[in-house]
Write a structure and sequence with these properties.
12 helices, 312 residues, single chain, alpha+beta
Length: 312
């Protein structure tokens, strides 16, 4: 596998990819053209010791999800819904750096307000609510470990129910298809294949480093970490779930790194199989137009890292 681990996420009618130095987001505009924006990664996050120390570097995923995710989602909405377009053909060099005329600026009160609101909802539904529900039935649960396991199962159930529910919305189904396109494109690059639609199309939509698998691993790890606190008071239980998120994320990140490194071993495939199975809920088979968008996003960050495209 290549030295640099590329990855990203799906957005509205597009894909965001992150490399070692830059991030790029490619979106299909209403007129069919691909609008591409690229900008350098914040080196205070990705170039510091935080991104290098095991069990700490996983916190960069929080930044990816909460900051880059929200900002690129807003950009994609501008392009896909409002018809924001660039006058140039997709070109990383021309679009990198400061946004040009008519391009969305990935900052401002709206972006940070959306970030705070999204974070609050996620914490409330997937961390606080399971703790509250478990507290209601705690008197009937024998043992601290089992209590925390029940809480983890409730958390997993809420996540799966949410993903299953939104997956039936037409717009989200397209986002899930772009998610599949992202995975296929990364697979092709990691296997040394040309970044062409014909080549990328042959790969699967599941990937070992997917955020869906990460969530499953995080839920399992959280049950083990939270069990160290036994069955504290409701206030301590709720606060501990929120405060310990960086630790849980850090451990889960290392587990996924090991999984990606030894993903070709049968025993690791067996351990990763539940996460790969759940990805069926968050991915769909993309069409060729979606693959073109994902390829454009990945080629941009690969070029910025000076690695060049895979020879055809």
């Amino acid at each position: 596998m290549p030295e640099i681990s590329y990855g990203g996420q799906a957005v509205m009618e597009g894909v965001m990819m992150r490399g070692a130095k830059t991030m790029s987001v490619a979106v299909r505009a209403p007129n069919g053209r691909i609008v591409l924006h690229s900008e350098p990664l914040n080196q205070a996050i990705y170039g510091s010791w935080i991104a290098k120390v095991p069990f700490v570097r996983g916190t960069t995923l929080l930044w990816d999800t909460l900051v880059l995710g929200i900002r690129t989602l807003m950009f994609s909405a501008d392009v896909a819904v409002e018809g924001l377009e660039s006058e140039q053909e997709p070109n990383c060099a021309s679009d990198a750096g400061e946004p040009g005329p008519g391009e969305s600026v990935f900052s401002g009160p709206l972006a940070w307000g959306s970030l705070v609101l999204s974070l609050g909802i996620a914490l409330g539904v997937f961390f606080v609510l399971p703790a509250l529900l478990t507290r209601l039935i705690d008197p009937y649960i024998p043992g601290d470990l089992l209590s925390n396991l029940v809480e983890a199962l409730i958390r997993l159930g809420l996540v799966l129910l949410y993903v299953w529910g939104v997956g039936h919305l037409p717009d989200i189904e397209r986002v899930f298809a772009y998610h599949g396109a992202e995975h296929k494109t990364v697979h092709a690059y990691e296997n040394g294949c040309p970044l062409t639609v014909e080549s990328v199309r042959t790969f699967g939509t599941a990937h070992e480093r997917c955020g869906t698998s990460f969530i499953l691993v995080m839920i399992v790890i959280s049950a083990l970490v939270f069990s160290l606190f036994g069955r504290p008071t409701l206030l301590v239980r709720v606060l501990s779930r929120v405060v310990l998120i960086p630790i849980v994320v850090g451990v889960a990140y290392e587990v996924l790194k090991i999984g990606a490194k030894y993903g070709d071993r049968w025993w690791m495939r067996a351990l990763l199989s539940p996460g790969l199975l759940i990805q069926r809920l968050t991915t769909r088979e993309p069409d060729d137009d979606m693959l073109e968008v994902a390829i454009a996003a990945l080629e941009c960050v690969v070029a910025a890292d000076g690695r060049g495209a895979v020879a055809e």
